[in-house]
Amino acid sequence: MSTRMVEVRAKVLKQNDLLARALREKFSASGVCVIGLVSSPGSGKTAFLEKLLAGLAESHRVAALVGDLATENDAARLKRATPNVKQITTGTVCHLDAQMVEAALESWPLDSMDFLFIENVGNLVCPSSYDLGEELRFVLLSATEGEDKPLKYPTIFNSSDIAILTKMDLAEAADFDVALARRNIESVRPGMRIFEVSAKTGRGISEVFDFLDAQLAHSRKSLAEPQTKTVS
Amino acid sequence: MHELSIAISMIDQIIEESDSRGGLDVETVHLRLGVFSGLDKQALLFSYGLVCEGTPLEGSRLVIETIPLIVYCPMCKKDTAPPSVYQICCPDCLTPTEKIVSGREIEVASLEVAA
């Protein structure tokens, strides 16, 4: 039997990408700075986020969405810092997608937020395929995981914007070679900005606050610019 | 392991495409898969077979073309393949580069259908 070719040329994740783009526009229009967090399980996303939320909540309106396969444990932890926390339980799904984020945000007033953090499911593979509409994606690497994680999981490191080295209080005990970890990150994502933090001792957290403040000012500025142009 | 989720999205998309063209008898699906897509070829082939069952695509074949990682070197001013997926730099002058030209594709290229 003869066959014929039908050209399609369509991205498989087109629906997710379109939804993520719509979310990004909505976040931008509402003036909320949205940060995604990805890492392997147990690298300290929630502890880092607890620190960020507690510190930022003093002067900013903060909120968080947190993804896990099961339990509401992380949301309960984060609620100690702010009541604006929602847990997304994915069941068996190993990543968040744009639709889950959109559904979780329904009835949440975006324009009453300065920062929204989206903590992905702990996984260094699958989240890399799904754009969630965030402005920046932070990838976390803990001192106890080994310096070569970026080389083993280049896709997620390359598709992230900022690297956070966590549990730095354990670096010495774990024989963690910071310079090597930095070189490996640079190798898979040239030019990536790297912060070294410890949620336990508070080391490096204020640098992240300063960065986020500047980022918020930057996003608000780009929000204001079109209006300024119309006026002038 | 999110190949199953990807296979489901892919099949939904092909069925939609087929319906919009009045129903196609799809024999082969050609997929372009970048080495930097975060997906495993074998796992995707396996998932495809599972997800097709009970759909109009049951019995169809998935053919995957692997797309290499290509970056742009700002020094040599050319597209080039980096030494590896974990050394994102120019293979000639070793300049690191942020610019990924291709390698992230997860794209249905074409369908072979019964004429």
Helix content of chain A: 25-40%
CA distance, first residue to last residue of chain B: 36 Å
What profile does the largest beta sheet of chain A have? 7 strands, parallel
How large, in whole angstroms, is the Cα Rg of chain B?
Answer: 17 Å
State the name of the first-level CATH class of chain A.
Alpha Beta
Q: Which of globular, elongated, flat, extended, rod-shaped describes the shape of chain B?
A: elongated
Mean pLDDT of chain B: 95
Task: Please provide a written account of the structure.
The complex is a heterodimer of chains A (232) and B (115). Chain A has 232 residues and is of the alpha/beta class. Chain A has a single domain (15-214), classed as 3-Layer(aba) Sandwich (Rossmann fold). In chain A, 39% of the residues lie in helices and 21% in strands. In chain A, strand 3 (62-68), helix 3 and strand 4 (85-89) form a beta-alpha-beta unit. Chain B is of the alpha+beta class and 115 residues long. Chain B has a domain at 3-68 and 102-113: hypothetical protein PF0899 fold, CATH 3.30.2320.50. Chain B is 26% helix and 30% strand. Chain B is built from two helices and six strands, in the order αβαβββββ. Chain B has a three-stranded mixed sheet, with helices on one face. A three-stranded antiparallel sheet of chain B has the order 4-3-5, with no helix packed on it. In chain B, strand 1 (26-34), helix 2 (41-52) and strand 2 form a beta-alpha-beta unit. Chain B is elongated and about 50 Å long. Chains A and B meet through strand 1, helix 1, helix 5, helix 6 and helix 7 of A and helix 1, strand 1 and strand 6 of B.
